[in-house]
Give the backbone structure.
Amino acid sequence: AAGVIQSPRHLIKEKRETATLKCYPIPRHDTVYWYQQGPGQDPQFLISFYEKMQSDKGSIPDRFSAQQFSDYHSELNMSSLELGDSALYFCASSFLKGRGNTEAFFGQGTRLTVV
Amino acid sequence: SQELEQSPQSLIVQEGKNLTINCTSSKTLYGLYWYKQKYGEGLIFLMMLQKGGEEKSHEKITAKLDEKKQQSSLHITASQPSHAGIYLCGADMGSGGSNYKLTFGKGTLLTVNP
């Protein structure tokens, strides 16, 4: 079965550079979530999109922005990178339309290292 | 303070032994999710619980949500080395609407010795 695809899997950037992370949800899923997991930390919710519109926002820095495109894939753009941005970034997707709480499936994550 | 408390933080068991991991909240949980994570890898969905008293099983893993929907337990029977990993509980701490974000516990690191 198709899963959530994230790219790239690994990314190394220098401070003050920009990074773009991509997420391709499971086909027919209408909702995408982004999480950040620092070393030894639990995943922290960043932002979510439902039907290409931002649906909720968590602890996402102003330097970060995200969007969901017409094909439902999503991109997380990170600018002016800081050392503290080094983390595992997860994307998850779910099918919410017409349903209440439903399970979200996570991708393998993108490991971002800022040097 | 952590909204979802997991215990224990780490657990080492001998293969074949049973074990239980707990997830507790001071607030009502509108959806409780259990995930497993191998170090540095993605989260693997295990189970979702929504109703008070609900219990679900998959292979040797059983998860329960208490009647008050504030505590969940994950029980593994006859553990195997393949069960090793980090177990995370996540919950919808909001109003239970159709758009949600998960709050996660700190995780429980399970080691199963052969």
The interface with chain A takes residues 30-31, 33, 35, 40-45, 48, 50, 88, 90, 92, 96-107 of chain B (CB under 8 Å). Residues 55 and 64 of chain B are 4 Å apart (CA to CA).
